[in-house]
Amino acid sequence: MLITDEKLYNLVLAENLVDREILEEVLIFSNNSDISLEDALLDRDLVTDSELSAVIAKELKIPFVRLSQIAIPSDLSHIIPEKIARKMKAVVFKKDEANVYVAMVDPSNLEIREMISKKTGKKVVVYLTTARDIEGALRVYRKDIQKALNLLLSGDSENTDKIFEEVPVEKITNSLIEYAYQDKVSDVHIEPDEKHCLIRFRIDGVLQDVLKLPIFLHDRIVMRIKIMSNLRTDEHLAPQDGKMRMKLERENLDIRVSIIPVVEGEKVVLRLLSSRSRRMSLADLGMGEEDLRKVTKAFNKSFGMVL
């Protein structure tokens, strides 16, 4: 925790992010529930993670950055290895002749700063960012698979077989699902034919062909999906149903999995059950500021009902 709950309470109050009465109720709840005030505020959708991080950064006299609004050069990904970047929640997003600029969820982490400084020989300038923005920025480590997908989508498939041979099937499968998630796809169909692995997305109820992968990838992708969803990997002649969960950005993506045998092999259908498609914050409902304050205040009462 970068600052205490008491300090965060005063900051949120000073910035007028939450009504005092509601904030006091949330503070009491967090103390009684043994969770941080920050988590309690975020769980109730009273503030956004960027709003909280911005006020915390201001208090700590550290610059705040929205990584989601920055195009991060792919050649910076070698500075922090992917495994360490994910563990430490840190991403290098810019560098110049004298400095390396790194965004972190926990700027007090001296270990990552020292590692970057030794590796680059430059001064490390630390920015505070959100965990969600870090998760999104970590896509910079998937440039190889993204390049291959973009080549396929653009119709330039001359070199894609070689690219896909060099990329682990885990990254290919994850990137396909992430691509579908970003495109607000409800279903992903993975179907084999004689020469290709056909990927089809259902968007707004319409099933459409998206891309064709090299056929040698099909069995590998099916095997990876079976492992992720705890299905039998030695079963190829009977239908199987399962489920899996992936952590994407700031939410869990639940996926229903159906695998059925077809003439050319096995067909996979993934139903994406994103929480963002099921849940909206109060602020998303279009209420006026005064009405929103009244409803939020009512929801935080321990009694009553909404009619």
UniProtKB/TrEMBL annotation:
Instruction: Supply the SUPFAM superfamilies for this chain.
Output: EspE N-terminal domain-like, P-loop containing nucleoside triphosphate hydrolases
Question: What Pfam families does the record point to?
Answer: MshEN, T2SSE
- Domain of life of the source: Bacteria
Keywords of the record: ATP-binding, Nucleotide-binding
The answer to whether the entry has keyword ATP-binding is yes
A GO cellular component term found in this entry reads: plasma membrane
All residue ranges annotated as the Type II secretion system protein GspE N-terminal domain in the record: 61-141
Report a single Gene Ontology molecular function. ATP binding
Residues in Bacterial type II secretion system protein E domain copies: 166-307
Q: Which family does it belong to?
A: Belongs to the GSP E family.
Protein name in UniProt: Type II secretion system protein E
